[in-house]
Design brief:
The protein is of the alpha+beta class. A hairpin with a 2-residue loop joins strand 3 and strand 4. It is flat, with a radius of gyration of 22 Å.
């Protein structure tokens, strides 16, 4: 629903483009319908955040329901410390459920779930780039800075202008493909047992 509304408001925003100053056309064009612009950003941001939350929720549920927790990772272990000096080593350790849940979502998708359930990482699939786009947008909204939001002095498009470049139908379909892939692979693993 959010993305359907975002698509509708996006077309309203683009159709409201007009001169900044009708008396001086050299000043360029802008979006005139401020309400449509605001509603577009509201719907698009809400859709991105909720779609990401649904994805992360499923990933965490799948980790919690895994038959065993056998994902290991090199963890730095401190052996001795004096003031700010620390002597430590890396140790390969099987992570607990709590440690698994605190890993970032990319690591959970690329490494943890494939290890726990024995399937190919979704990072090699065609839908992975849309997941990365979703994560980038979501992280931008959640951890927003003024420079990132408005693209100030960075030579990059602002977070808000990036929303106009998103193909929302493709994004929804590919995230749906990611979730379907996870469910299928995990179901296949459960049926093996």
């Amino acid at each position: 629903k959010f993305f359907e509304s975002a698509i509708e408001f996006k077309s309203k925003v683009f159709s409201s483009k007009g001169p900044v100053n009708p008396k001086d056309l050299e000043q360029g064009n802008a979006f005139i319908d401020q309400k449509a612009v605001f509603e577009f950003f509201t719907e698009a941001c809400s859709g991105v955040i909720l779609l990401f939350a649904a994805t992360e929720s499923l990933v965490n549920k799948l980790i919690e329901n895994a038959p065993e927790y056998n994902y290991s990772k090199n963890i730095k272990v401190n052996i001795f410390s004096v003031g700010k000096y620390v002597i430590g080593r890396k140790k390969n350790q099987v992570l607990s459920l709590e440690q698994l849940l605190f890993l970032n979502i990319e690591e959970k998708l690329k490494n943890v779930l494939p290890c726990l359930y024995g399937f190919e990482s979704p990072a090699s699939k065609t839908f992975w780039q849309d997941f990365k786009t979703l994560k980038l947008l979501r992280d931008g909204f959640i951890h927003c800075t003024r420079n990132h939001a408005y693209g100030a002095n960075r030579g990059v498009n602002s977070l808000y202008s990036q929303l106009f470049d998103v193909d929302y139908e493709k994004l929804i379909n590919n995230i749906g493909n990611l979730l379907t892939y996870l469910n299928k692979e995990i179901q296949r693993d459960i049926e093996k047992e």
